[in-house]
């Protein structure tokens, strides 16, 4: 990153941690293939299993229940399938229900031909009454229902009532998949406490390298048919020679994420509160989404009336600050946010997202507030001129 740049887009990707970088470099220097039985192979295997333990600890599961993938998108495509196995016997799932605010990796529905959308309220929280009604209308003869609800929304940071959803899903005999990508490393996450059957997580949102993630399961009895078939790596669930460097970097980031989480979160939440108070002082009409409800501590999603998010993002960028216009997708073009639409907001205007992390400083927050005040002031001037 260039000098004088301020990076406030941690939900898009978090800066690589020095520990993760060191682990990646160690992994790159390893000679062995983890499937080989010679000493080099066994050394590589040992390091992958050590990383698996660190990733398992991040979400409180048995390491045997962590399948490494190329990222959360692959993990989502792996798990969202009607094609399951119980041992060797095939099991068909009947339908997929996804919340209206899922990340596209889940929202697209994976290998299901169609999916039903569970609505969210104006507060950005999935409507559990609607979930209950939809599952009550599900035809069990078609197969078990699968439900996907994320834990923390990537655009707003709003936390979803996943544990309550799990009770409803299980009462209807369904399977619950939770995208915990934006929650791990930001709040404590336990598959057991959430009542989830599967979690998907990603390395690069917690300071690990990009291109590695995991599908985490509660047990090993009912498992999805593999997405990537071949030599039978990852106990047959995900073939392909493991990216040792990526996995070791992920393990190092996971170990960091659980260490001193509460203390780190207190500091991050204090910075977030400072930011929001400063923004409010500069522009009393700023709308902070999800402010009243539960959110991850690192995310502020806001609408400045009269300012198009895209224009705001460019203005911040020109002032040296990287943040996101919520709905920026991988191709770099900005579309209307399906999350804002689902919340009943004016998606044409869009929203800006500031997301921070452990390395963010008070000085950076104050600089962001100053730029915000400048942009908000300009908006008033152009309003007056109009
Ligand atoms: N789910 C959420 C909530 C995300 O924010 C992201 C990343 O943008 C993904 C899934 C996809 O993760 P990955 O980049 O590892 O494929």
TrEMBL record:
Signal peptide: none annotated. InterPro entries: Aminotrans_V_dom (IPR000192), Cysteine_dSase (IPR016454), PyrdxlP-dep_Trfase (IPR015424), PyrdxlP-dep_Trfase_major (IPR015421), PyrdxlP-dep_Trfase_small (IPR015422). Residues 6-367 form the Aminotransferase class V domain. One of its GO terms (molecular function) is cysteine desulfurase activity. It catalyses: (sulfur carrier)-H + L-cysteine = (sulfur carrier)-SH + L-alanine. The keyword Coiled coil does not apply. SUPFAM superfamilies: PLP-dependent transferases. Keywords: Iron, Iron-sulfur, Metal-binding, Pyridoxal phosphate, Transferase. It comes from the Bacteria. Its cofactor is pyridoxal 5'-phosphate. Belongs to the class-V pyridoxal-phosphate-dependent aminotransferase family. NifS/IscS subfamily. Catalyzes the removal of elemental sulfur atoms from cysteine to produce alanine. Seems to participate in the biosynthesis of the nitrogenase metalloclusters by providing the inorganic sulfur required for the Fe-S core formation. This is Cysteine desulfurase. It comes from Martelella endophytica.
């Amino acid at each position: 990153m260039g000098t004088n740049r301020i990076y406030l887009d941690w939900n898009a990707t978090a800066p690589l941690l020095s520990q993760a970088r060191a682990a990646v470099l160690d992994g790159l220097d390893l000679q062995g293939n983890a499937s080989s039985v010679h000493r080099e192979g066994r050394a590589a295997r040992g390091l992958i299993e050590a990383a698996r333990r660190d990733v398992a600890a991040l979400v409180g599961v048995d390491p045997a229940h962590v399948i490494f993938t190329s990222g959360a998108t692959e993990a989502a495509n792996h798990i969202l399938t009607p094609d399951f196995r119980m041992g060797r016997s095939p099991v068909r799932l009947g339908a997929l229900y996804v919340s209206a605010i899922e990340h596209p990796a889940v929202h697209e529905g994976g290998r299901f031909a169609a999916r039903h959308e569970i609505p969210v309220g104006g507060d950005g929280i999935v409507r559990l009454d609607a979930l209950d009604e939809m599952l009550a209308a599900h035809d069990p003869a078609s197969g078990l229902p699968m439900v996907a609800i994320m834990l923390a929304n990537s655009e707003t940071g709003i936390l979803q009532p996943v544990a309550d959803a799990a009770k409803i899903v299980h009462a209807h005999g369904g399977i619950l998949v939770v995208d915990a990508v934006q929650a791990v490393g930001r709040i404590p996450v336990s598959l057991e406490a959430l009542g989830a059957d599967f979690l998907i997580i990603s390395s690069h949102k917690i300071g690990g390298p990009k291109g590695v993630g995991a599908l985490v399961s509660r047990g090993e009895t009912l498992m999805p048919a593999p997405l990537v078939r071949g030599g039978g790596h990852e106990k047959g669930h995900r073939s392909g020679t493991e990216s040792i460097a990526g996995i070791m970097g992920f393990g190092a980031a996971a170990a960091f994420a659980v260490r001193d989480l509460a203390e780190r979160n207190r500091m991050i939440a204090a910075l977030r509160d400072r930011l929001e108070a400063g923004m409010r002082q500069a522009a009393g009409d700023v709308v902070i989404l999800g402010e009243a409800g539960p959110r991850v501590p690192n995310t502020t999603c806001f609408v400045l009336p009269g300012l198009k998010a895209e224009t705001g993002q460019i203005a911040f960028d020109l002032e040296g600050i990287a943040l996101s216009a919520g709905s920026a997708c991988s191709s770099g073009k900005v579309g209307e946010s399906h999350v804002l639409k689902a919340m009943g907001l004016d998606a044409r205007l869009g929203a800006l997202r500031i997301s921070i992390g452990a390395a963010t400083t008070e000085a950076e927050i104050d600089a962001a507030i100053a730029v915000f005040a400048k942009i908000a002031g300009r908006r008033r001037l152009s309003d007056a001129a109009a």
